[in-house]
């Protein structure tokens, strides 16, 4: 094994054994793109539900025109894009930092849990500016991200056993009744042919 963790990671990446670990630059780039995309999607849906740009006008004034339109765009499109991007980059940054500090050579659920907690704190603090809401958001997002990292994107913990249950190795040529079913048919003869 080479001397430093970074050399080991580069060597494993060259062999194709990166185990999903990426450098921070790549993670931040993808988190930024995903955050901007999610923010624009959220802003677009927001436009569909609140199409009137005068809803954001100041008290006792109604101002139409390009300045109000740009302010409306800022409120409905730019703010969510920035919020989602900041949350994504926070998650990527904390997870990369913890990978570097711990020197972990594989993805670790604790890294995702703490990164999710940091991202949840930013998310709750950005939208509400209240510590109690931000701390509970941090707890919830951290737990969810840790569970997703443990189980992967699916909710099945043992996919091989699940597949074996769905598709048995062999099928009997004739259906064999269980002992319980035979006893029930003997007890209730009117249902014998069902």
TrEMBL record:
Keywords noted in UniProt: Membrane, Transmembrane, Transmembrane helix
Regions that span the bilayer: 28-50, 77-98, 110-128
Highest taxon, organism lineage: Eukaryota
UniProt keyword Transmembrane, yes or no: yes
Protein name in UniProt: Uncharacterized protein
The organism of origin for this protein: Cylindrotheca closterium
């Amino acid at each position: 094994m080479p001397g430093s963790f970074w050399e080991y990671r580069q060597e494993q990446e060259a062999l194709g054994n990166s185990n999903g670990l990426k450098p921070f630059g790549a993670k931040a780039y993808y988190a930024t793109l995903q955050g901007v995309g999610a923010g624009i999607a959220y802003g677009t849906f927001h436009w569909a539900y609140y199409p009137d740009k005068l809803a954001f006008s100041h008290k006792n004034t109604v101002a139409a025109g390009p300045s109000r339109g740009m302010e409306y765009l800022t409120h409905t499109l730019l703010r969510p894009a920035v919020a989602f991007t900041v949350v994504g980059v926070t998650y990527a940054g904390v997870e990369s930092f913890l990978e570097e500090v711990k020197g972990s050579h594989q993805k670790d659920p604790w890294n995702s849990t703490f990164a999710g907690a940091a991202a949840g704190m930013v998310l709750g603090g950005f939208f509400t500016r209240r510590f109690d809401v931000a701390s509970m958001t941090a707890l919830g997002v951290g737990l969810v991200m840790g569970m997703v990292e443990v189980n992967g994107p699916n909710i099945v913990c043992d996919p091989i056993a699940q597949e074996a249950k769905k598709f048995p190795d062999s099928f009997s040529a004739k259906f064999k009744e269980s002992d319980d079913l035979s006893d029930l048919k003997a007890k209730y003869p009117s249902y014998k042919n069902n």
